UniProtKB/TrEMBL annotation:
It comes from the Eukaryota. PANTHER family: SOLUTE CARRIER FAMILY 2, SOLUTE CARRIER FAMILY 2, FACILITATED GLUCOSE TRANSPORTER MEMBER 5. It comes from Dipodomys ordii. This is Solute carrier family 2, facilitated glucose transporter member 5-like. Its main location: membrane. The keyword ATP-binding does not apply. The gene is LOC106002376. GO terms for cellular component: plasma membrane. One of its GO terms (biological process) is dehydroascorbic acid transport. It is found in: Membrane. The chain crosses the membrane at residues 30-52, 59-83. It is a multi-pass membrane protein. It holds the Pfam family Sugar_tr. Keywords: Membrane, Transmembrane, Transmembrane helix.
Length: 93
């Protein structure tokens, strides 16, 4: 529950109508797409309960932390090896 609060998923549901309208969904279909999003969330929550029971919390936490650590290492290496581009030169007319 706390993870959902911190992930920002509630903002998605709050602004879902505007998000789907700006994505090109017809205004008459927005309510159905929003309900579908909620249904997918419920189904995945049920699936998650079984996955946690099958694999265990410790393994899943270690996998998540390992993935985050690996992404941070890759990002750090990319930033260190980044080559700055010189600013564009202005031409006088």
């Amino acid at each position: 529950m706390g993870g959902q609060q911190l992930s920002g998923v509630n903002a998605i549901y709050y602004y879902a109508d505007q998000i789907y309208l700006s994505a090109g969904v017809a205004s008459s279909d927005v309510q159905y797409v929003t309900a579908g999003t909620g249904a997918v969330n419920v189904v995945m929550t049920i699936v998650t309960v079984f996955v946690v029971e099958l694999w265990g919390r410790r393994l899943l936490l270690l996998l998540g932390f390992s993935t985050c650590f690996s992404a941070c290492v890759v990002l750090t290496i990319a930033l260190v090896l980044q080559v700055p581009t010189p600013p564009a030169r202005r031409t006088s007319k």
